[in-house]
Every structure is written in C-alpha cells, then in structure tokens.
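Thread: "does anyone have the structure for this chain?"

Original post by V.I.:
We have the sequence but no experimental structure in hand. Need at least a predicted one for the grant figures.
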Amino acid sequence: MFISLTRYKVIPVFLVVATILAGCSRLTLSQQGLSHSPEEQAGNPDLQVSVVNQSKYAPIHQENLFVAEIEKRFHMKWDYMSIPVSSGMDKFNVMFASGQIPDLVLTMNNFSAVKNWADAGYLLQIGDYIDRLPNYRKLFNDSEWKDIQDYATINGKLYMLPSKIDVKDPMAWIYRRDAFERAGITEFPKTTDAFYEDLKKLKAALPSFEGIGVRGGPNTTGIKSLLAGFQHAFRLPPDFGGVDGWLGFWNDPDEQNRVVYAPATQKHRDMLIYLAKLYREGLIEKEFATLSEEQWSAKRQKGKDLIDFQWVSQVADLQKEALNQPGIVWDYSRYHPQAYEKPGLEFRPVSVSLYGPLLSSKLLKDEAKLNRILSYIDWAATDEGRLFHMMGKENVSYQMDGGSVHYMAGKDRKRVASEYGFDWFLSKSPAALSSDEPSKKANEAWQVYQKLPYVEPRNTPFTDQDWETISIYMGTVQDVVYRFATKSVMGLEDVSSDSVWQGYVNELNKAGLQDMLNIFQKYWK
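Reply from O.Q.:
Generated one for you, tokens below.
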C-alpha cells in the first residue's frame, strides 16, 4: 500500500540556477532534427510506446480515434490502456510492483503514488527537460510556476507535469431548488442547525429523498466526500492527502493560530457528532461508505439525491440533462453554512493541479523515444493540441460555428471521451471554454466564492530527515482518521463519549501523530 502523502519541498535558488544553466547546454528539439509540428515528423520511423491513462471517462475501446490520430501525427505505435479513476489504484500498483512500467502515464491523479514511484526510481526527472517543453512552460505565469516548484517537487525534483487550472471551479452544495421550494424552503440554509431542519422538511415532503448524496468510489472515497461537505462549516481543512496543498496540519485561527492536526481537534469531533445525528435520522445516504460513483449518479437521475457537495460546474450539466423533465431546477449555494458564530471558511487550493503525465526512467536509455514523447507533450500544450485533446476531431466530435467551438449534436465531454477517447490534457482549450456552459457556471461561482473568508496552504522547506519521518507515519494516521470517521457517522463508535474520543486520539498518537505534530510545530511556531 502506498503511503498517502505529498512532498512539499522548496527548491533552493542555487539549484534553480544550476538547472537553468544545465538547460542552456542541451540541444533543442529542432537542433536534434525533431519538431513539435506533427507535419514535420513525416519520415520518422514509428516507435513502439507503452501508454497508460487514468481516465475520468474511460473509452469504450482501447483502440480509438484519439490513439489513432496521435499515432499518425507523431509516428508512434501506442500499446494503450485506459484505467478509470473510479477503479482506484490497484491496477497501477500491480503494474509498478511487477516492473511492467509504461513509457508514459498520460494522466495520473494520485500524487502520493507519484512520490512513492519517484522514490523507487521508476520515474524520469521530467524537470530536467523543461527547456524542451517551451509551450508547456508558457502555460503558467511566474507565480504558478513557483507553486509547481514548491508543491509538485519531490526531493527538489519534478517527476510529474502538473496541469493548468484554466477554470476555477469551487466546490459547493448543489441542490434541487424546485424540491426545496416544494418542501417550503425558500433559501439555502445559512447555519448547520437550519441545514438539519431543512433536510427533515425535504424528507417529510419528498419520501423518495434518501438523504444527502455522497459521491462514492474505491476505498475511503465515500467518507472523504461526506466530510468535504461539512469541513468548511466547521472551519476545518477539507483535505488530508495533500492534493490541494492541505495535509490536515495548520495554524488554526480559532486556536490563537496554534499548530494543530485538524482531525484531532474538538471541531472535528463536533462535526462527527453532527453527522452521526444526520445519519441516524436518515438524512445522509445510508450506503455512503460503499456506494459507487455510478450508483450515486443514478440516484441523482431518479430524484433520490436532491443535494450533495460537488463542483459547481456540474450544475450546468445536470440542468441540461433535465431538459426533458420540466420543473427541475438545479442550483448551488452561494455560501457555506456555519456551525459556529464565525462564518464557514474557504480553504484555497494551490494554483496548479497536481494531475498530469509521468515518464518512465527507462527512457533515459532510449533517447529517440524520449524525444518523440516530449515532442508530443509540448504540442499538446499548444492551442491546436489543447483543442484536439479537449474536443476531438472537427466534424466528427465538434464543429466550428463562426468563432465558437461546439460539440456535435448529441455529444458532450463524457460521450466524446467514451466513444473516441478524447479528453482535456495539461490545459483546456481557450476556444472551447468560451462556449462551454459548465465553465461559465464555474466562473460565475468563483466570482462569488472568492469573496468568502479564506485561508491558503503553507509550503514548508522540510529537511530530508523530517520529511522521511512524516512520510513513514502519514498513511497510517490517515487510515485511523477515516476509519474512525466512518464508524462514528454510522453509529458504530460513540464519538460523544469522552473515553471513545480519547481512545481515538491515543490511536492517532500511537500511529505517529505526535511525532509529525512536533515537526510541523518546529517549522510553524
């Protein structure tokens, strides 16, 4: 099992300078007879490349139009496999453990796994080749590039190419406004007490309502999704895995900025007590811990899920799907309900997405293949490449209408990805975003949510020894947190009992929490 942790490491200035100087001594792609232009690659022999993609919407066929077009444009022959995000990491774990490491992992959305594979020597230090990826580098401004250096490096090295966040899509409560109104609820609740009362009204007015919907998935996805909806209200960092820059440790403004581990605080306990009450009264999806993403989606369609905590952009898609069901109105909350006198908090993520491609270290022994893959990746960061990945092929999956880009009739992101294999990569197409309704909805919400009270993650220059200590303990501590949270919500542990809570804290410390807390306190005192 991989240790679930992200490495945050500041790159010293002298290392940055050394990298720049080293880059100046390398030959550019054009000097090596290579080009970022697919047309100029004619005459190059086809190269066999093994590629695995972690897909949000896996294509129906592994041999698809996307793969065929890339093979034709870049004279590569892909041995391609798509693994759905919803299936978890098991296949990747087996693949890497058995030594069957692909040349290219097109997208990876598990940075803790990236760290472990990098530490094991499986991955290419892609940061050494940024000078060969000028179009990719131009995607990011200087501030964003600094975040990549601060949050995406492992032992000072870059092993994954993070993605550009082109659309700031806040997470919020998404709900059926028409159902709320039928239950006599005229505005979204502003406190957790009002939230509880309104859920009871929904349950009484609409018997088909099965409680707060929870986007499920493998392992601990269910409990993580459930907690994410309430951690803002209880003023707790919403992510303990580091994906958004948060690890659960922070300077809590409600504790005089004392360094604490959020899941070991009274506020976390308050939240679990509250959720246990909701679950006990049938106001939370009963199968939240085991529900699959597909089952969750089906419940939305059947009117059993009238409210859940998700990305605001989904409102546009849900409303589109409801066109043949007059009266259905999806909306999103413009604020986080608050559990205390102070308002709910926004926990801002880092400015880039720790989601992107990985290259195998074995490519160091195959310069021709490495150059071909780098050429493809850098082309993917151009306007042409971004449109290609996001929308597909003109007059097949999308069409141009004046200056606008639209999916063909009956097509959308999911269908284009499933039928043809296309989906956005590295950065979304500006041309496509200009007419994309989910993106417009997300940007609308961002204008609202950026005005809410917020805090930002801290980057810390841990020593290698301190980071090794954190890496050893973090996975076990997180297992304790999510196991206890699941049992508490389901009523299998009485979190209101002082002895039960102290037993949980003791178990955290036994797993290494106090040692980690001592380290964070040393840096953040």
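V.I.: this helps a lot. Residues 1-35 have pLDDT under 50 and may be disordered.
O.Q.: and The longest helix spans residues 464-489.
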